[in-house]
Amino acid sequence: MIKPKDLIVKPIGVKPANKFIKKHHYSGSVMVSSQIHLGVFYGKVLYGVMSFGHCINRRGTLKLVTGTKWNGFIELNRMAFLDSLPKNSESRCIGYAMRFLKKHYKQLDWVISFADGCQCGNGTIYRASGFKLVEIKKNDQLRVNPKTGEVKHTLSAYMDGYRDEFNEKWKILKGHQFKYIYLLKPNLEKNLSVPIIPFDKLPKTPIPGKEASMT
Fold first, then answer.
1. What's domain 4-137+178-201's architecture?
2. How confident is the model over 121-155, as pLDDT tens digits?
3. pTM for the whole thing?
């Protein structure tokens, strides 16, 4: 029987990481901007992947923590784990990932990630891993392609060439988006430009599907 303490988290290549993400992440897609990929192994079997890289709205996100340099933060772009992992495995692996970033990427001050309440969950894993909730908002950025059922973020859709069709025909998903920050340097909490939201402020509405990273 697998125990959380027996899991090994280590860097892996982009190809095996993307293959796993496409198969097991609810979106079925990867972020081409992901640069750091950590695999979760039990023996030689891959049980999870966490991919980190630039976020879509990098300039706007930079302002969340005053004094942050252009290369001072990173996004947890994609995160996927097999359902067969035991309880607490995900938070243990995220904790290792944060320590890995602290050790090997000393220019980084903080990590941002999003939970998609429209398609998966409200960020239970992030809260268990020491992330701080800094924004709750009704979704206005994710829409559904009426022909294919594909879900896209507004910025991604525009970059892919969808404009008038996106605004006129794609329906906005109902639900909320949740923004989380992990401070790799705890003394930076005083530099947050947004308030930390107590977890009891989360909407008490049914959350569809499984927990995962949004973007």
1. 3-Layer(aba) Sandwich (3.40)
2. 788 899 999 999 999 987 776 777 777 777 666 66
3. 0.82
